[in-house]
Amino acid sequence: MNLFAEIRALVVESLADMAARGELPAGLDMANVAVEPPRDAAHGDMATNAAMVLAKPAGLAPRVIAETLAARLAADPRITTAEVAGPGFLNLRLAPAVWQGVVGAALAEGRDFGRSALGQGTRVNVEFVSANPTGPMHVGHTRGAVFGDALAALLDFAGFDVTREYYINDGGAQVDVLARSAYERYREANGLDPEIAEGLYPGDYLIPVGEALKAKYGDTLLDRPEADWLAEVREFATAEMMAMIREDLALLGVRMDVYSSEKALYGTGKIEGAIDTLRGIGLIYEGTLEPPKGKLPEDWEEREQTLFRSTAHGDDVDRPVKKSDGSWTYFAPDIAYHYDKVTRGYDLLIDILGADHGGYVKRLKAVVSALSGGKVPLEVKLIQLVKLWKNGAPFKMSKRAGTFVTLRDVVEQAGADVTRFVMLTRKNDAALDFDFDKVLEQSKDNPVWYVQYAHARVSSVIRKATAAGIAADDATLAAADLAKLGHEAEIGLAKKIAEWPRLVEIAARGQEPHRIAFYLYELASDLHALWNRGNDDASLRFLQEGDAATSQAKIALARATGVVISAGLGILGVTPAEEMR
């Protein structure tokens, strides 16, 4: 049940009837007609802009349309008043029975309440994390992992067919550095002093890798030249790092559907095939780039190179795909990887990248546009930095990692649920402060605790009702006499519940899972406010002694709130609390 969609359908139906009666021109485009909460709740329950957006194409004054529309809407039993405001906005008030019905719908639909067919099965690939397999994931990866997983869950809830994908960057020079670093830990495992030269990875996390290498090879690699062991150790160490990364993701509750390898693109003809496809449509040529202003990028050479004409698809400059020495640039395997995703039949690609990849966005969008003939859009979401605090000071780096705070550090300090929720309390492109002291305190200022506390209160009500012999299963509560919910605070909470299906669609369209966290905090606030009013007004308490029917109606309202909180936390990947300790 999406009440806002239902009332919008009523508005559009009324406008169509007006057109049929000659009160409006036929064939008006209704796409921009909206029904939404008014900015000021004092103005009503819902507002529509119909008269404002149709006035010009209809050739009529907005108030003329609004007044005729208001008369038609007021005839519907769901609408108690329809008032024209200002130049032609229309404010609507709905009957209490409508809001009471939302409570019943939430209980009847259960975990499906708020689910949407918005996506209509659109196939979406969400690629996120994709950390280099050279060590444990750091706090920046943590935020990207949480955002990507929550976005995928949100899109799934809104009717999209979603694939979660991790792109393993195992084809570059960094994996050779990993192999050399692991080899030094292998030497250490064999009783020799490791030589952690500048440029190698110093973290203690490679000590177990060195020991595992010793268990497999003994001391047979010690006297062999690098050329003999590099490839073997590289493959072994990469596999060990990916196992560690999978464990770290599991700690956070993240599971990928697909792992793709950059290395698998080399020597298989996939890079060549993607470049040939671009060549076939006239987008690959041999040329020399003008030197860019400011700092020169790594892949710029003042020589003739093989270039992708990315400016034909919205980029600022054309991009090199092959260097003058014949080797591929870093961009070439990315072209092949995105071509692979396009050929797998996705309707939409979403890449979630660190903020330092901002300069890469236009070229990626250009190549996906070119390779898909403009049919497959690419959305790139940049993840801003996270600043960690503890005891009023920056949280120090992990010795185990050597240079940064790891995902495991954060989860061990705060827990997976807290980590996930707090990482989603800011939009992805805004910087975020993560204060270990604040995220663990029990107060209204801690959003995750506040929302969890609301769900725990609902569970407590259900337990107390059951103990008192009051049936409190969802089927019974859905059939309760919800007309007993008449207080403004109760109707207010029902109105907030009614916003959930609309909020899901707004968040999914904008690819903004942080909206779910904000909404849950507001919903929890309304529940807590009603609970606290019950301390002073016994008639507002969820359990009414000696009155099972009224109790069940009030418990139904609490339980419906719990249904929505549970669904929202499910999208965020947070486990609802049954009780607080």
From TrEMBL:
Keywords: Aminoacyl-tRNA synthetase, ATP-binding, Cytoplasm, Ligase, Nucleotide-binding, Protein biosynthesis. It catalyses: tRNA(Arg) + L-arginine + ATP = L-arginyl-tRNA(Arg) + AMP + diphosphate. A motif ('HIGH' region) lies at residues 131-141. Its main location: cytoplasm. One of its GO terms (molecular function) is arginine-tRNA ligase activity. Residues 451-580 form the DALR anticodon binding domain. NCBIfam families: argS. Belongs to the class-I aminoacyl-tRNA synthetase family. This is Arginine--tRNA ligase. It comes from Albidovulum salinarum.
